[in-house]
Amino acid sequence: MTDIDLLPREHEEDLRASVRRLFEAESSAEFVAGLYDDPTADTSKLDRAWAQELGLAALLVPEELGGAGASASEAAVVSEEIGRAVAPVRFLSSAVLATTLAVHLKAQSLLAGLTAGERFAAIAFPATAARIDSGIEIAVEGGSATVSGTVPGVIDGVGADDYLVVAGEGVDTVVVRVSAEHVQAEPFLGFDQSRQLADLSFTHAPAEVLGHGLDAAAAVRAAEILGRTVLAAEQAGLAQRAFDLTLEYVKGRRQFGRTIGSFQAVKHRLADLWLEVSQAGAAAIFAARTAAASEAGEELPDEAELCSLVAGSYASTAAVHAAEEAVQLHGGNGMTWEYPLHLYLKRAKADEQILGHSRRQRQQLAPLIDLPTA
Amino acid sequence: MSTEQQRIDDAVAAAAAATTDAMNDSERYGVLYDHGLAWVNFPEGCGGLGVSTSLREYAAQQVAEAGLRTPPRGSNTIGFGMAAPTIVTYGTAEQKLILRDIYTLDTIFCQLFSEPGAGSDLAAVATRAVRNGDGFRVTGQKVWTSGAQNADMAILVARTDPSVPKHQGLSYFLLDMHAPGVEVRGLRQITGEAEFNEVFLTDVEVPEANLLGELGQGWKVANTTLNNERVAIGGGTPREGGMIGVVAGAWRANPEYRDPLLHDELVRLWVEVEVARMMGERLSQKLAAGQPGPEGSGAKLSFARNNHELTGLELQMTGVDGLRYDTYAMRRPSEYSMIGRIPGYRYLRAKGNSIEGGTSEIIRNIISERVLGLPGEHRVDKDVAFKDLPK
Question: Residue B286 pLDDT more than 90?
Answer without folding.
Answer: no
